[in-house]
């Protein structure tokens, strides 16, 4: 009985950690992204694999796969907003959290990622 309760509590905690918004990371939908693309001061980063990026991407986004982001983070400016996208929003959220830990203060994650881009 206690074990079941602990499992449920752990599961709820895990889900909360996984899907809760993170302070300092803005979330936008792809419909909001369309207006945001006009801002030439923003840094647009697509963290999908090179193959995914070649298949379909949004003009203006630069491909830095999530696995390569730690090594290439120095190429991004902490003084400019970083807008991050992936296929579904999961990898881009991981990338956003990584950027936040590295001292970036203006980070926007695209909810739903390329799956919701029309």
Outline the fold blueprint.
Elements: H1 2-19, E1 25-28, H2 30-36, E2 43-46, H3 50-55, E3 62-63, H4 69-72, E4 82-85, H5 90-101, E5 107-110
Describe what this molecule looks like in 3D.
- With 118 residues, the protein is α/β, with parallel strands linked by helices.
- Helices cover 40% and strands 15% of the residues.
- A five-stranded parallel beta sheet has the order 1-5-4-2-3.
- It is globular and about 55 Å long.
| Uncertain residue segments | none
Helix/strand order, N-terminal first: HEHEHEHEHE
Give the termini distance in whole angstroms. 48 Å
Please report which band the strand proportion falls in: under 5%, 5-15%, 15-25%, 25-35%, 35-45% or over 45%. Answer: 15-25%
- Average pLDDT confidence is 91
Largest sheet: 5 strands, parallel
Cα radius of gyration in angstroms: 16 Å
Describe the strand arrangement of the main beta sheet, using strand numbers.
1-5-4-2-3
Q: Care to count the β-strands?
A: 5
Helical proportion, percent range: 25-40%
Number of helices: 5
Shape: globular
Structural class: alpha/beta
Q: Notable features of this structure?
A:
118 residues; alpha/beta; 5-stranded parallel β-sheet; 5 helices; globular
Structure summarized in a few sentences:
This protein is an alpha/beta fold and about 120 residues long. The protein has 5 helices and 5 strands; from the N terminus they run αβαβαβαβαβ.
